[in-house]
Every structure is written in structure tokens, then in C-alpha cells.
Amino acid sequence: MTESNIPGKIRFYGSEVAELFTLELQESLNGVLRKNFISNPEDQNVGFVSASVDGRPWTGTMWTRDAGVFLRELVHYGYLEKACLVAACLIRMVRVGEDGYYTFPERFDLGQPASGSELDGTAAIVIGMVLLWQRLPVGHPSKEQIYSFLHRSDSALFYIDKVLKSSPLIPGSGEFGGGMAAHGLYMNVVQNNLVCFALLAAAEMEKAAGDQQTAAMHTSNANTLSENIAKYLVDQDGSWIWCVDPVTLEADDEILNHPINKGFGGINGPACMSCDVLGFDSLAAGNSITKMCVKTFEKLYSFPVRKQQFEKYGLWSQFDLWAHGMLTGPSYGQGYAIQTMLLLDYLEMADRALAYLVKATYQPPDAFPLDRESPYWLYERYLSPDAAGIWDWDQGCGALNLVCVAEPLKIGRLIMGVDDTKPDRVTIIPRVPPSWQGFEAENWLLRTGIGTVRADISYTKDRFKLKVLDGGRIDNLVLELGTAGNRTTFEVRDVSMAEESTMHS
What we know:
By secondary structure, the chain is an alpha+beta fold. Among the domains are: about 40-250, Glycosyltransferase (Alpha/alpha barrel); about 425-505, Maltose phosphorylase, domain 3 (Sandwich). About 40% of the residues lie in helices and about 15% in strands. The chain has helices at about 15-35, 65-75, 80-95, 120-135, 140-150, 155-165, 190-210, 210-230, 255, 270-275, 275-280, 280-285, 290-300, 305-315, 335-345, 345-360, 400-415, and strands spanning about 10-15, 60-65, 105-110, 185-190, 245, 325-330, 380-385, 420, 425-430, 440-450, 450-460, 465-470, 475-485, 485-495, 500-505. The chain has a five-stranded antiparallel sheet with strand order 1-10-11-12-15. It is globular, with a radius of gyration of 21 Å.
């Protein structure tokens, strides 16, 4: 077993952008842990993570979607004890909702327990908790707490089972329900796909815990939900439909064409979220949602303003209409787009999009000043230089907005390509942008079929090296090089303390 309080680190190199991205990820994560995260065990709110800092909008609130994806990144970067604090805080704060189940609200105010119908937040939390459960040692108190919370008959997972007995899809609220401008419940494509992934993650947990009956229920519900997503949330052109009415199961043009929803980059969510459970090559290899994800991505890219901004700057507009199509962000706009590009092996596009994100983080346009302590801190609203004079600047949640740090952390992992979603193997699929040279990872946490280990990993375009640390062992290591349809596979069994190197052309 490994020490649970030692984080891993990644360094990218080979270009100015690669070096800057390394600094931005590390400094932003350090900033969140110092300013957003309550770590003092004597504080009754220990584990609470604020969505923003320094009195900007939503300071002192923990948005469940943000907390779920931040929990996911804490786990993968090896901050297991901090992840345990976040998980415990979420369990402590959620209350039973009107239907009698533990479903999460859009956000928690500091010290105020609540319940709600934010299904993307609920599902992201479930996935983050399962990832943590899988990596904690037997007997760890948080492992027992998480399993008890997710396994109980009034958990959110059993709420999903209840709803699916009378409804083809799961209704939810919030920004990924009907959108920021729509109140009430809607059946949203991002929420429903994320719920599907959460069910599959929970099924794996139940199998590992020995409850095959509950595992089968979750798997069956995921299959049912997947079929209904394809039936009700796919447009005639094969792209995703943002949401449908929960009663009529029909799209509402007024909702879909609202400036906040039309061309909203968040609809790339199913593409980039799939890898959290299905693996880093599932989308490129062609899973059940690949066609819809590709069509949606292409439809977004074809919008004239977005295409023009991307070709000019590498900026992927977060909206077709809002902010004149000249705003993006490291989460739902640029962030989801880069993740999708990487997972589809669109590496030339990802290279360009990363260059924009990294440079605009370090040096935003002069017309859009930020309040922040470090030029390396990621922030919420990235504006095109072309927006100067036509957009009233408001930094919004500003620097260290939680989800805007979490999603780039995931981008870093996708470039590195360390995929331990399958219990029988560790697969590494490097997706290094063409203008970069490679990466080095230290003390990286890996889940294997025989427990967790730590390893140092490095990759350049002519050499891969992995060294297992502290007497650990990887029973099955798979290295995938190249792009979808043209991969070369190397497999090594029983990797122990000896350094393993694989040369390739």
C-alpha cells in the first residue's frame, strides 16, 4: 500500500507553452488548497471547498458539480487524505430530499446542509467517491463511510432506480438542466450521460465489494438510460439535444435558442466525461456515444464566429451568441473542447487550443484586467482581444474559480494518458501535443489489480520509462502509442522495482 498524503506531480516540457502549463496547473492547485479549501480539522466546516475566493461571486459556497470534479482530481493527483475530507464534508452536508433520497443541491452555503435536484453535481460526486473508494486501503474509515453512503437504500443511486421505473430519463435542474436562464426540471443530455457513467462506476464498486445483485441493478439501469438517451436526446442530424421537457419529452425551442444555451460548449460534456469511467481510449475507439459526440463537436466548430476565433487565436467560444461569441473559459468552453480534442486524437487542434489557454492565463488582454495574486492562476472568463470595446468586462468568479482549476488539471492527466479505470491493467496513452516534447510525472498514484502503487513516469517521442516505487508492483502495464486506428501496443506483466523502458519510433 502507498502513503495516502503524498501528491503526484507532472512536468511538461519542450516548449514555452508546455513549461507555462506546468506552472499554471501547480500554482492554481496550490492556490485552491490554500484559499478555497478548509483543511483545519478543528473547523466544523473542514473539507468545504469554496467556488471562488476574495469576496467574488459565490465565495463561501460549494457548488456540487465543482466539488465533484475537484474530488476526482484530488484522487487522481494522489491527495487522498484531502479527498477524504471533501467526501466527508459532502456526506455531512447533504440532506434527504422531498422524495426521501440523498440527492445534492446546486450548491451548499457554508455551514448550511441541503438537498436538491442537481443531477450533474450528484453524479460527479458519486464518481469522485467511487474513485476514492477504489484507491483507499481496506479498513480505512473513509472507505467504509463512502460505501455505506452510496450503498444505502436511500442513496442517490437508488433514487435513480426509482425514477427509471416510471420515466425514461432523469429530470434535473441547474445550469446543466434547462440552463442558467431556465428554472425547474429538465431532462438534460449532460446530466443523463453523467448519471449513466455514475451508475457504471457504482456497479464496479459493488462488484468489488461482493454485492453482485446491486451491481447488476446499476448496470441494468445504466443500459436502460443509455438507450433512452439515444432515443430522446439525439437530434435528426445526429448531434446531442441539450434538453427536453420532462412531461412531453420534446425539445423547447425557446429554451434551446436562449443566448446562454445556444451553442453552449458544455454540451461537449458527454464526450469528455466518458473517460472518467469508460477509459481514456473509449471515445477514440468508438463507444456507444462517439458518433453523437463527434457530430456535436463538429456542429459547434462550424458556427462562423467560433471557427473564426479558433482559427485566429485558438479560442473555442463557450457560447454562440452570449458575449458575441468571444468568451470562453477553462471549464465548459475551452476546457471541455480540449478534453474532447485529446480523447478523439485531434492533437493538432488540441495543440492550438492549449496554446491559447496557457498564454491567455499568463497574460490576459490588457482590456480585461484581473485581481489575482499570481499570473499563473487560472480564472473564469477568458475574452478574445476582439471583444475589447464591445463587451462590458466583469471578471465574474475570477481567479481560482474551482471548476476552472479542476478541468485543466484533468487536461494535464489526459495529455499524460495514465488510465487506471480498468482493475485488470494500467494503460498509458500519451497524447502529447505535436509542439511539445514530453512529460515527467513523479510519485504518480496508480490503481492496479493488486492494490495501489506509486510510480515515476516519463515520456518523450522516442522513449517511455516507468519506475515503480517503494516495493510496489503493477501486474499488467499496457502502453498505447499512436492515434486511433493506428496504435502500437506494448504490454509488460509484473512490473516491479526495476525500471522499464520501451523504445519506439
